[in-house]
Specification:
Blueprint: H1 2-43, H2 47-68, H3 70-85, H4 87-114, H5 116-123, H6 131-144, H7 147-163, H8 168-172, H9 174-188, H10 195-212, H11 214-220, H12 234-249, H13 252-264, H14 271-306, H15 310-347, H16 354-368, H17 371-386, H18 391-415, H19 417-444, H20 447-461, H21 467-475
Helix pairs in contact: 1-9, 1-14, 1-15, 2-6, 2-7, 2-13, 2-14, 3-4, 3-7, 3-12, 3-14, 4-7, 6-10, 7-10, 7-11, 9-10, 12-18, 13-14, 13-18, 13-19, 14-15, 14-16, 14-17, 15-16, 15-17, 16-19, 17-19, 18-19, 20-21
Length: about 475
């Protein structure tokens, strides 16, 4: 009975953590929609809007690649091991990592500002033949690029707080960015000849606020950041060992979306904006449920693996995936059937027309096809990283990007920007299949016996009450 009580407490703790992250994320996303409503009213789906979204995507892409997701999965497992030795060792590791990160961000930001035309060409080659969009995007990108340094330092703080099971500040911080951009849209935009430049200033202000709010929270857990230069510290080496492969592994979804954006710049004006607004909608359930569950699972699984508690890790992962499945499926159905009313309600106003709403809804429906696997990919990658296995997600991400590019080139011919969104969704199915097979074989059980067991299980329970839930967990090899 005692063991059952412990398991129940672990399950409740996991869901409480996911609910806490999801609740704060909901607030941030609501503010994000309000932000996007103001952006839509100011810029619509015009060439200026395309320029702003591409310029905003530059620091955000690198943030998602190198900071918010990747740094977290590289830091948390190593920090869990350092905390076993003592808080003094953990703080020495964090100070060394902060020093290395600060130096790297300074160099990268300077290089990015100097070589921005080449960087922009890589992200938006289609803009080069449109001098107006090109110059607008270049100016906006240079204004917003320092946001990367601010948000990356904040992201390290989020990872540390999550490792100490303090989820609220990290989950609430993105709301400050949305508030800053809303402030820029209402207060600053009338002061600028180009309203997009006012929004860019709001982005920088939001980054500064997100970083500033971390310091009181870090002080409460006993760590006052004092960056040091000690790159040869063994824990730093362990972090870099995870960080390099994790760049591709955790960012597979973002790479796929980026491919769509690059190709969208080759399509008529408006395509980039349609994909941006559609992605903003699909990111809501992904953040509320998929990312929230991944965030809650990472420290829990890392502690399980650090203490050789494989059975507990397996149980937590199974419960997380089952919960995700039954939450996300109704969301998918709702978005597929209500895509256009959702877009019209949120964005159709001012410069954003009824035609823009209809076109954006088509992109949203295509993205929604892959919503469940977007969430699964996040959680399954988290399981790999918690076990300090970064090579497999990296390898599978590379394969997925190749599949996405091939599908995007094929589908954009008959379907245009809708084909680009659909390619991203279909490629994520491929990514999840590879991650599932890897965990099946390497972590939980022998793959061949699992296949035979799953086949028999399908026949036994497919038509029984709750059979679909059991089938999914069996096929994932986690029950």
């Amino acid at each position: 009975m005692g063991a059952e009580s412990v398991k129940s407490n672990q399950k409740n703790s996991l869901f409480r953590a996911a609910a806490k992250v999801g609740s704060w994320t909901m607030l941030s996303r609501i503010l994000g929609f309000i932000r996007d409503i103001f952006i839509a009213r100011l810029l619509g789906a015009s060439p200026l809007a395309d320029a702003f979204f591409v310029a905003f995507k530059l620091p955000n892409f690198f943030r998602r690649m190198f900071a918010e997701g990747t740094l977290t999965v590289a830091l948390v497992p190593v920090l869990a091991e350092q905390r076993k030795k003592g808080e003094e060792d953990a703080h020495a590791y964090l100070n060394a990592l902060a020093g290395l990160l600060l130096a790297a961000l300074l160099v990268f930001t300077i290089i990015g500002m100097v070589f921005m035309p080449w960087l922009l060409f890589a992200f938006a080659p289609g803009f080069h033949d449109d001098p107006d969009r090109w110059q607008q995007a270049l100016t906006l990108a240079r204004i917003m690029f320092p946001y990367l340094a601010l948000i990356s330092l904040a992201a390290m703080s989020w990872a540390v707080l999550n490792a100490y099971r303090k989820f609220s500040v990290a989950a609430a911080s993105p709301a400050l960015l949305n508030i800053a951009i809303i402030f820029a849209a209402i207060i600053l935009a009338p002061l600028y000849d180009n309203p997009a430049e006012a929004l860019a200033v709001g982005v920088i202000l939001g980054g500064a606020l997100q970083l500033a709010i971390q310091f009181p929270a870090l002080k409460r857990i006993g760590w006052i950041p004092k960056p040091t230069w000690n790159p040869k510290l063994p824990a730093i080496t362990d972090t870099m060992f995870l960080f390099g492969p994790a760049v591709l592994g955790i960012a597979a979804v973002q790479i796929n979306i980026l491919v769509g954006t690059i190709l969208a710049t080759l399509l008529p004006a408006g395509a980039v904006s349609y994909l941006y607004y559609a992605d903003r909608i699909v990111q809501l359930p992904l953040a509320l449920f998929g990312i929230a569950m991944g965030t809650a699972l990472l420290p829990a699984l890392s502690e399980h693996f650090a203490n050789n508690r494989t059975a507990e890790a397996k149980q937590d992962l199974r419960q997380g995936l089952t919960w995700l499945t039954w939450i996300i499926l109704p969301s998918m159905v709702g978005i597929l059937f209500l895509a256009e009313p959702i877009i019209r309600t949120l964005f159709e106003n001012g410069a954003f027309t009824a035609l823009d709403a209809a076109n954006t809804a088509h992109a949203l429906q295509a993205y929604t096809v892959g919503l469940l696997v977007f969430c699964w990919a996040r959680v399954l990658s988290t399981a790999c990283f918690a076990g300090k296995d970064a090579k497999a997600p990296m390898r599978y991400a590379m394969y997925t990007v190749i599949v996405n590019i091939i599908l995007a080139v094929i589908l954009m011919q008959p379907l245009g920007y809708v084909g680009l969104a659909l390619a991203s969704a279909l490629a994520s199915f491929f990514n999840v299949a590879l991650l599932w097979a890897h965990l099946h074989k390497k972590t939980w059980r022998n793959l061949q016996s699992a296949k035979l067991e799953a086949y028999g299980f399908c026949r036994a329970c497919l038509f029984t009450h709750g059979g679909i839930t059991l089938l999914l967990t069996k096929l994932l090899g986690l029950s």
